[in-house]
Amino acid sequence: MKILGIETSCDETALALLEGSGSFNEAKIRVMDSALISQIDVHREYGGVFPSLAKREHIKNLIPLLEKVLKGGKMLQYKIRGEKIDDKTLEKLREIMNREPDLFEAFVDFVPKIKKPAIEAITVTTGPGLEPALWVGINFAKALSEFWKIPVVATNHMEGHIAASLISEKSFKAKASLKKIKFPAMALLISGGHTQLVLIKDWKKYQVIGETRDDAVGEAYDKVARMMGLTYPGGPEIARLAELGRIEKKLGKLKTDPFKLPRPMLNSDDLDFSFSGLKTSVLYLIKKKSLTNPVLSDEEKISIATEFESAVTEVLIKKTKKAIETNNIKTLILGGGVTANTFICQSLDKTITKEFPDIKIYLPEKNLSTDNAVMIALAGYFNRLQKTKQVQNIKADGNLHFV
Ligand code: KG4
Ligand code: ZN
After folding, report:
1. Is the peptide bond before 112 cis (omega within 30 degrees of 0)?
2. N or C: which end of the chain has fewer CB within 10 A?
3. 120 and 210 part of one domain
4. Is ligand 1 within 6 A of the CB of residue 281?
5. Is residue 178 part of a domain?
6. How far is residue 141's CA from residue 118's CA, in Å, rounded to a whole number?
């Protein structure tokens, strides 16, 4: 089955074409092509994602990306004569993209000119995420579905982050098996909007057993970065400074007194997290510092970033270990944008491998850590396999939960 994945939940517009075969345990997949336009530069001056701008950018990006992936997937064929759309279809399309008139214009200008590709289904992220942004992808999926007469399958963005870790590098070159999961498995999902421990008893059987009570890990990174005057998104910036800090520490070159930050909820009885206190502690640190000198020196920034990353990592490791022990976990899946952080992933990998040598640990390939459509296409393929899960009236749900 060939499936088109669409992702517009936040600040990346992404499309992917994926070919899948076989059922859950023996599924083989090939990534035919994927393309993505990041809006980071657009949102940078606001210090975060601005929903109406995200919507505008998704509207602008979808048709060029569709052309790109169809071409890359060798599915782009122009009709010899451009087809005229009948009035009824035109009205339906206009109705579907009523709130995105520019997308409607771009759609009717391009899609009727190309031959219907051999795609059997479309899958789109319906949540969690920013609703104005999600709607653009959903309405685009609905319009394609209407025009090409193929079904749309709803996909949960966080399920996509789980799926991302199962794709092996080989799938980008040829059809290849997914990484093998032994159940019960568990996913640690760390992104800009979520921090969750998800127990997976079998394919598509999810139970959230721990989550953040306030800020997500990525959100804490971004907020701390903003306090230190670093550019958006702060995650990669803090990671870069923390890396420098660890090197300087090893060489005994870190000049400032090391800052100390708390490890929130490290020893709580549950599997929940809290990162807003950590962020507030950084704020107090900076305020206290600015009494003597209002500008943070590079050394101070490095020191804060290093300590912040250590605190986050320590908490993530402790809670993950606890969840593994209490649930007899056999496979650990790491997912979400913060898995782009090498230190966090290496530290988790080192500790878990040492203390639980029988556990398999899966991480997304580097280009699949942050938001993309390959992960949505794969999760959508699973949803399509599970036909009962198909939704008729697809709508955006900014707070969509695992069932
Ligand atoms: O999964 P994702 O792309 O979007 C959401 O679903 O939220 O995650 C984005 C988050 C941002 O908060 C970003 O700062 C963080 O992932 N991030 C990182 C790194 N790269 C991205 N956080 C820490 N270290 C990184 N290297
Ligand atoms: Zn994400």
Report:
1. no
2. C
3. no
4. no
5. no
6. 16
Q: Which CATH number belongs to the domain containing residue 281 in this structure?
A: 3.30.420.40
Ligand 1 pocket residue status of 218, Cβ below 6 Å: yes
Q: Using one digit for the tens of pLDDT, what is the confidence trace for 57-75?
A: 999 999 999 999 999 999 9
Domains in the chain, number: 2
Of 158, 226, 338, the residue with max ligand 1 atoms within 8 A of its CB, to mutate for a pocket test, comes to 338
Q: What gap in Å lies between CA 204 and CA 324, rounded to an integer?
A: 19
Handedness of CA 228, 231, 234, 240 (dihedral sign): negative
Closest approach atom of ligand 1 to CA 370: 3
Using pLDDT thresholds of 50, 70 and 90, give the confidence band for residue 306: very high
Range of the domain at 245: 185-363
The DSSP call for residue 122 is: E
The per-residue pLDDT for 289 is 78
Predicted structure pTM score: 0.96
Confidence bin at 393 (pLDDT 50/70/90): confident
Probe residue for ligand 1, chosen from 221, 363, 367 as the CB with the greatest number of ligand atoms within 8 Å: 221
- Residue 270's CB is within 10 A of a number of other CB atoms, namely 12
323 and 385 fall within a common domain = no
191 lines ligand 1 (CB under 6 A): yes
Same domain, 278 and 262: yes
Give the C-alpha separation, 54 to 51, whole Å: 5
Give 254-264 pLDDT, tens digit per residue: 766 678 999 99
State residue 374's pLDDT score: 98
Decide whether any atom of ligand 1 lies within 6 Å of the 236 Cβ.
Answer: yes
